[in-house]
Write a structure and sequence with these properties.
Low-confidence stretches: 1-7
CATH architecture: Alpha-Beta Barrel
Order of helices and strands: HEHEHEHHEHHEHHEHEHEH
CATH topology: TIM Barrel
Strand content: 5-15%
InterPro entries: Beta-glucan_modifiers, GH, Glyco_hydro_17
GO molecular function, one term: glucan endo-1,3-beta-D-glucosidase activity
Catalytic activity: Hydrolysis of (1->3)-beta-D-glucosidic linkages in (1->3)-beta-D-glucans
CATH superfamily: Glycosidases
Shape: globular
Distance between the termini: 37 Å
Keywords: Carbohydrate metabolism, Cell membrane, Cell wall, Cell wall biogenesis/degradation, Glycoprotein, GPI-anchor, Hydrolase, Lipoprotein, Membrane, Polysaccharide degradation, Secreted, Signal
Structural class: alpha/beta
Largest sheet: 8 strands, parallel
Strand order of the largest sheet: 7-6-5-4-3-2-1-8
Number of helices: 12
Subcellular location: Cell membrane; Secreted, Cell wall
Helix content: 25-40%
Bound molecules: 2-acetamido-2-deoxy-beta-D-glucopyranose
Mean pLDDT: 93
Number of strands: 8
Amino acid sequence: MRLLSSLLASAAVLTSVEAQNGYKGFNYGAFFNNQVPKKQVDFEYEFRAARQLPGTNGQFTSARLYSMVQWQTQNTVIEAIQAAINTQTTLLLGMWASSGQEAFNGEISALKTAIQQYGKAFTDLVVGISVGSEDLYRITPTSIQNGGGPGAQPAELLNYIRQTRDAVRGTALEGKPIGHVDTWTAFVNGSNAAVISELDFLGMDGYPYFQTTMANSIENANRTFYDSLDATVRAAQGKPVWVTETGWPVIGAQQNQAVASAENARIYWEDVSCSLMAKGVNFYYYMLQEAQYGNPSPDFGVKGPGDLMQVPNRFDLSCVRQSFFLV
Ligand SMILES: *[C@@H]1O[C@H](CO)[C@@H](O)[C@H](O)[C@H]1NC(C)=O
Ligand SMILES: *[C@@H]1O[C@H](CO)[C@@H](O)[C@H](O)[C@H]1NC(C)=O
């Protein structure tokens, strides 16, 4: 029975990944942890550091962004775009959707400007557009209780998704998949099914570390993660499910049975990240570096604070099981 259900579960995952390209990347915020906006040189440095990351064979060549707008501006194109062109980094674009229509107009405007200003050099790099990031999670009682900040109602998101489709119609971005990134719990919530209907793909965020109502020790983490992926696939109306955020913290408070440590982050990488990459799932790890300065907690960074190119990886990023057969 157990075997049968796990076979069925893997079949479900396979259906969801058939048409995927195996993009591998990290999530990149628009500003440093002291609120200073990232400039083109900063993004470029980060994209190059990801590409040169020891143990990964130069495979981390994609970047997920949260916004099209340069931080602290109204509608200036984010400087990550020029940095991506200079480093040939593919892009999962993000449109920030939790600050109301006026702010979203800035996202649309920056998207249109980028298409005009950079043309094919930009549009060829785009692998998808996510309208929103965890907006549906942030309107839930759990997030409100945790002080998660404003989100967006399903009807609002539908509106933004349609506005984005209108904005790219007739441009070189028409036909690029438009999705939405949210927690797996938001996707399996039936009240959000109308949003899923509007999407080309779902971007799933899942963190067993934070799943404190479940058995969430590192020993169970692979199972817990894939259960959430399978549940999302079942809710996905046949659409592909990308993994847009997952990770295990190196530093942080214990959450139920989940212990933050470099050793456990390594186990999570080997089990979850390496298996997703082996399956060819589009995959964006959280994250390359949490902070340049200070001591954030939790800290999910593969790199600790300091100069990205100089500080060593906190844990081994090779996928031993996969490369075993190649040596
Ligand atoms: C389910 O989704 C609806 C609409 O997004 C939201 O209002 C509600 O809080 C969610 N329920 C839970 C238990 O998260
Ligand atoms: C984690 O689970 C996935 C899906 O069931 C599986 O393919 C992978 O081999 C597992 N990894 C380990 C280390 O058990």
